[in-house]
Design a protein that fits this description.
356 residues; alpha/beta; Rossmann fold; 3-stranded mixed β-sheet; 13 helices; 12 strands; globular
């Protein structure tokens, strides 16, 4: 019994691999981890698994059909958990091509390789097999301030190149189930945060910039609303759906934590004031409002009642407990932060923020 995880050196993927191999029910099931190690993939996230025979890392691309076929034939996984994706909206605005290549073409190639593998299994193995596609709430578009939260039947209305590419991948997964019978489940999550988060996204960027005394850039008026999900809760939700989700179904995984971007930044500043006070004064002094990004969705909110009613899952962390754990992790892992802040990362921040 083995699972294949794509994108398992990225933020959510690496947290999932670590969670899988530490959780009592799954810790004895090995993981084959396929990751292309692009800028956000980081083997340092998985340093605690060095020498662990349960974890096999393979550097490679989900668009490499020959490699996929070889891995599936060699390891014969009973499930594939598909995280691999380009995921940063701002990067998709500056360079949408990479998002189409990985999120759309890569998912297509992976689905075809998995379909070939699954089709050759015996009836018992076929029935047990699962393809778990990990997606985002951004495929649903933007909500009005008083609109009900996204349910699994909400119309798809992606507004960025990133969300459009993920919407396309969701549709491919659905089609491969309905046309070919591939046993799939899909999860659409809200904004994740927690350890090993590459510091281009809001929360880790605010932490590392504040500690360095740099500006804390907030887009527009800072009143954009997101639902925030601690990454370990997301991992437990994926395990629940992989174990008990109905085939062909979609499950929303959310944290029941709607917050504005400004609230998030002020919370991070207050925690840093408490845990690592600055001699220069409150970290909120560094807040800088910058020009909003094009097409910025105003509000996301996840209705996670379906996964709760069918599978009994609810997040274990409140935003208050999760954000404290997150800030403490970054304070305790300065070496990790320093190692990911390469020249390429600094160049990207300059590209994205210099004209705002």
């Amino acid at each position: 019994m083995t699972i294949l995880v794509t994108g398992g050196a990225g933020f959510i993927g690496s947290n999932f691999v670590l969670d899988w191999l530490s959780h009592a029910v799954t810790r004895d099931e090995p993981v084959v981890n396929l990751d292309a190690l692009t800028y956000a993939g980081n083997l340092q996230n998985l340093a605690s698994l060095q020498g662990d025979a349960r974890h096999t890392f393979v550097k490679g691309d989900i668009g490499d059909r020959q490699l996929l076929d070889a891995l599936l034939a060699q390891h014969r996984p009973r499930a594939v958990v598909h995280f691999a994706a380009e995921s940063h909206v701002d990067r998709s605005i500056h360079g949408p091509g990479a998002f189409m290549k990985t999120n759309v073409e890569g998912t297509f190639t992976l689905l075809e390789a998995v379909r070939g593998h699954w089709s050759a299994l015996d009836d018992v193995a076929k029935a047990a097999f699962r393809f778990h596609h990990v997606s985002t709430d951004e495929v649903y578009g933007s909500l009005a301030p008083d609109a009900p939260a996204f349910t699994e039947t909400h119309t798809y209305e992606p507004n960025s190149p990133y969300s459009a590419s993920k919407a396309a991948s969701d549709h491919l997964v659905r089609a491969w189930h309905h046309t070919y019978g591939l046993p799939v489940v899909t999860t659409n999550c809200s904004n994740n945060y927690g350890p090993y988060h590459f510091p281009e996204k809001l929360i880790p960027l605010m932490i590392v910039n504040a500690l360095a005394g740099k500006p804390l850039p907030i887009y527009g008026d800072g009143q954009q609303v997101r639902d925030w999900l601690y990454v370990s809760d997301h991992c437990s939700g994926i395990r629940a759906v992989l174990a008990g989700g109905r085939l062909g179904e979609t499950y929303n995984i959310g944290g029941w934590n709607e917050k504005t971007n400004k609230e998030i930044v002020l919370t991070v500043c207050a925690l840093l004031d408490e845990l690592r006070p600055s001699a220069q004064g409150p970290y909120s002094r560094l807040i800088t409002y910058v020009t909003d990004r094009p097409g910025h969705d105003r509000r996301y909110a996840i209705d996670a009642r379906k996964i709760e009613s069918e599978l009994g899952w609810r997040p274990a962390e409140t935003f208050e407990t999760g954000i404290r754990k997150t800030v403490q992790w970054y304070l305790s892992n300065a070496d990790w932060v320093a190692n990911v802040q390469s020249g390429g990362y600094r160049d990207w921040l300059n590209t994205n923020y210099k004209t705002r």
